Amino acid sequence: MTSDPEGEPMLAICTVKDTQGNPIAGVTIDIWETDSSGHYDVQHADRTAPSERCVMVSDEQGRFWFKGIKPVSYPIPHDGPVGKLLQLLNRHCWRPAHVHFMFGKEGWDRLIT
Ligand SMILES: [Fe+2]
């Protein structure tokens, strides 16, 4: 799902399971992450095609896999009211490195993590 030559390659092999550990087939999974500079594709004014994102569907064993880049941490905007709030709370503006997943299947609650 990546076109970033600077990112450290990452292979993610995943399984979707219910709370009893049973695999769930046919789950649509939207996946997105930043590039190696810590920016999402929509934050680049010169990008016309999506990158660092994909949509997968789990197989009969609940499995899906994708190639991306190892996530990097990035700062949230902190030059306005959010920055003032963070300063008052003595908190920094950096989010930990992460990948976003949104799981969807008819009859199930949507899960975004
Ligand atoms: Fe994020």
Automatic annotation (TrEMBL):
The answer to whether the entry has keyword Protein transport is no
Query: What Pfam families has UniProt attached to this entry?
Result: Dioxygenase_C
Q: Which residues form the Intradiol ring-cleavage dioxygenases domain?
A: 4-113
The entry's keywords? Dioxygenase, Oxidoreductase
A GO molecular function assigned to this protein is: ferric iron binding
State the superkingdom.
Eukaryota
Q: Which InterPro entries match?
A: Intradiol_dOase_C, Intradiol_dOase_core, Intradiol_RC_Dioxygenase
Is Transcription set as a keyword in this record? no
Family in the record: Belongs to the intradiol ring-cleavage dioxygenase family.
Record's protein name: Intradiol ring-cleavage dioxygenases domain-containing protein
